[in-house]
Each structure stands twice: as structure tokens, then as C-alpha cells.
Amino acid sequence: MTNVKICGLKREEDIIYVNKLKPDYVGFVFAKSSRQIDKYRAKKLIMGLDKGIKKVGVFSNHSIGKVKEIAEFCNLDILQFHGDEDPIYCNSFENTVWKAFRIKDGNILKKLEEYDVDGFLLDTFARGTYGGTGKSFDWKIVSNASENKFIILAGGLTSENVEDAIEIVKPQVVDVSSGVEVCGVKDFEKIKKFIKKVRG
User: Fold this and answer.
1) In this protein, which residues make up the domain named N-(5'phosphoribosyl) anthranilate isomerase (PRAI) (predicted)?
2) Are 120 and 98 in contact (CB under 8 A)?
């Protein structure tokens, strides 16, 4: 069964939606982004979150100390790194760690082997950005990756294409943000439809 992560929560309404629809993970973005929130806002939202949903913090090139401080303050379950974090950096935490890789071609798969992390988030390569493009990549490039790795598939997923993505990549988790939004905010019906497509 593929799990679902809804990323980029920033409003009380978002928490109400996910508490009703029960994705497996939700993401709070601390990296520079239109969905960025601070630790105080995140903590307030997390206090209202269903305890069965795992909390992921999204970071990009933060100092180790800063990540640890936010993780403890917000009681995060998983740390997701989208920047230039090297293997030593990624192994500096006691939390579960997911490292994001931007897929341009098959060469990136060699890079994955350098890391000993709990999860590999595969996103779309776009020059000058660390993720959140809302565009998908050629999933066939990573069609075998989930055979020996915990794969989180991101990048341009919607309720229209997620079934195909799961069939090709067989990821353990699918990660969606803009694909369940209308005018930049999370939409209950879109989240509901996305989760239904994933869970059949």
C-alpha cells in the first residue's frame, strides 16, 4: 500500500482537512517557499493535528543546530532535506531522515548510493530551485529505485496522474502539495480525490 504525504500545510483549515482525510504524513515547510512557516506557527498547527499522522519538517541548507532546535520545538517525526546537505550532515540527527534528489537523468541514481538515509525523495530537476516545481519528471528513470530503497515520489503529482506514477515507480510514499491546491491554498475535495486514487 502506497502512503500519502500532503505537504505545505500552513492554515488551520489545512489541519481540519487532513484530520478528516487521514493522510499518513503531512509536511511543514521551513525552507524558503510560498508555503514557508516559522516554528511557532508550525507548533500551533501541530497541536491540533491528529496524533496518528506523522509530522515532516522540510528544510534546505539550514544549520544542523537550527534543524535540531525546530525539530525538538515542533516534535517532528521526520526531517526532509532539500538543499546541498551531504551524507555527514544527514547522519547528524536522531530523527528519521529523508533526503531529496532532483531527477534530471539516470546519473542521479549513482548519487543516491552515497547516502545512508531512511528515505529518498525524488523530485523534478529545475535550474535554480530546490524543489516545489509542481512539474513531474520521467518516472521510468527511477522505475527500479524502490526495489532496495524507501522512495518518496514528488513533483507534479495530481489525482489525474498518481495512479500511473505508482504503477511505474512503486514508491512507498507519494508526496503532493500544489496538486491539491486551488489558488495557492489546500482544497478539501482535491486532497480527498488524491487520497482516494492512491488508496483505491
Assistant:
1) 4-196
2) yes
Q: How many CB atoms lie within 10 A of CB 196?
A: 11
**Structural domains of the chain, with CATH:** 3-199 (3.20.20.70)
Cα(95)–Cα(9) distance, rounded to whole angstroms? 20
Is residue 105 scored above 90 in pLDDT?
no
Q: Is the pLDDT of residue 37 over 80?
A: yes
Note the pLDDT tens digit of each residue in 136-193: 889 999 999 999 999 999 999 999 999 999 999 999 999 999 999 999 999 999 999 9
- Whole-angstrom Cα distance, residue 85 to residue 102? 13
Host H or E run for residue 46: helix 39-47
Kindly state the cell numbers that stand for 192.
480527498
Catalytic residue among 7, 74, 90, 175: 7
Is 183 one of the annotated active-site residues of the chain? no
State how far the Cα of 159 lies from the Cα of 164, in Å rounded to an integer: 10
Q: CA-to-CA distance for 153 and 105, rounded, in angstroms?
A: 15
Q: How far apart are CA 144 and CA 136, in angstroms?
A: 17
- pLDDT given for residue 63 in this prediction: 98
Query: For 85-109, what is the mean pLDDT?
Result: 94
Question: Catalytic annotation on 123?
Answer: yes
